[in-house]
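Escalation from tier 1.

The customer reports that the assembly of two entities below gives different structure tokens on two consecutive runs. Tier 1 could not reproduce it. I'm attaching the input and our single run for tier 2 to review.
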Amino acid sequence: MKLRDVAAVIRSKNSGPFELTFDIIFKDGDLFQRVYEAGVITRELFAQLYNLPVENVTAVIGFSPANAIKATLVRPIPSGALGERDVYGAQQHVPLFDVEIQL
Amino acid sequence: MPELRVLAPTAILGYGFPIQSFEEGLKRDPHVIAVDAGSSDPGPFYLGAGVSFTDRNAVKRDLELMLTAARKRKIPLIIGSAGGSGGEPHLKWNVEIVEEIAKEKNLAFKMAVIHAEISPKLVLDKLALGKIVPLEPAPDLTFEELEKTERIVGQMGIEPIIRALEMGAEVIVAGRAYDPAVFAALAVYRGFHRGLATHLGKILECASIAATPGSGSDCMMGYLGENYFQVEPLNPVRKCTTMSVAAHTLYEKSDPYLLPSPGGVLDLSETQFSQQSPRAVRVTGSKFIEDANYTIKLEGVKKIGYRTVAIAGARDPIMIGQIDEIIGSERGRVADNFGGQNLEYFLDFKVYGKNGVMADLEPVVETKSHELGIIIEAVAPDQATADTICSFARSTMLHWGYEGRISTAGNLAFPYSPSDFRAGPVYAFNIYHLLEVSDPCELFPIELCQSGEVGA
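Tier 1 run:
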């Protein structure tokens, strides 16, 4: 199964000009718990998907009130810097769609 | 303790709202109307150039409704991050609109204008005293970097707004402010719990985005009690669910449990969300933990040059198959042609249909697009050089003789004449730091005046 099959929301957005934050909100609490506990969504995963050193993935945190996993990483370049492609950071989520989930 | 009601008409002043939703809000007898006008999301340009990212007519339309309603009901109207970035020119722009409406509608009120632009000299002094630390992952601030800075604003907390209320202000136009501050200030002033008031503000600052279906241009009502708050969208097509409200807590923040704010941290580790009615959600348990030292978040930008862009399309499959090589050769040709002149420039090609959105992070390696959109971009220390580089790169690409070319008349389809556009000055964020203050109001001077007398 892929992450897009179990998530109701997968989104990215700036958290300030220097960070990019991702929210994966699962379709229900059970799916959230199972994926979160499976330990697939990790800092290493984000490091690999976004071609960053692991230490640049600031956090991957489960947030059960929203059945969500949040991940935050250091923006490859600050918002609006030379070479920018996505000032708001709102279209950087797609590599997460096809992450394989074993449930 | 009686309930306090806060009406949040729209997510950003100028994004609009249905009048019917607004009237529903007024029927609920709000104690205050508040709106956030700003964000750093649209990037560094607006702060640097001193212009709003929202449209004047749209802002005036929203403000006219809010101002008229607030004055009729004798309740405060509080606007935060005026003009989008909340610096001096932005604030002046917003105050002018308020003044214009007051005149046209014959409204009289006491207005407080709270300034939030911080002088580089003050930041320099604080830097020397070691009172400035980067908000990670922003880099350290150096004296050299500070000298290049075009404009700096500080995000005020609730305190300067409370002070303006104490002074008797009926309309408050605040420069750059922590987004929830305008929604929480009156509540905290009246003795409500700061954690709940701030969390309520955090939701209301985006108006109906926390509802489902969400909208950034529709009204939301907040109800604050002694140990709870409640949110309810004012358009009957929307509802708040525990999921929609909890999910909004994540939005644009790095850590869902601990949200830093001026003067302390909003701690949501014990927050509970419960469905109060089919359309309203009740929230309890949010706490505010005061920092030992009060800090203000600074945002600053520097000018890094001027930009010119050309927009074009490519449809020829032989060219599309070699686009990377062609761009590589282009770069070489530009460098070679102006090599003798020591021109300083940044040249970039954004290729939509290939990796325009994600660049090097794009997981799809091979494009299957039958056509490409290409933006040729030049940034240079002056506009003339940016024009030169963009123009040369464009004309060279138009006639580039790539391998196997059979369309020898031209490689690019330009949708416009002119093909090149001056995008003007380019800015970059260079300050995203915390400044320690002894008084939360010290950076934010308040002007109190009768409407019609400000901005002289």
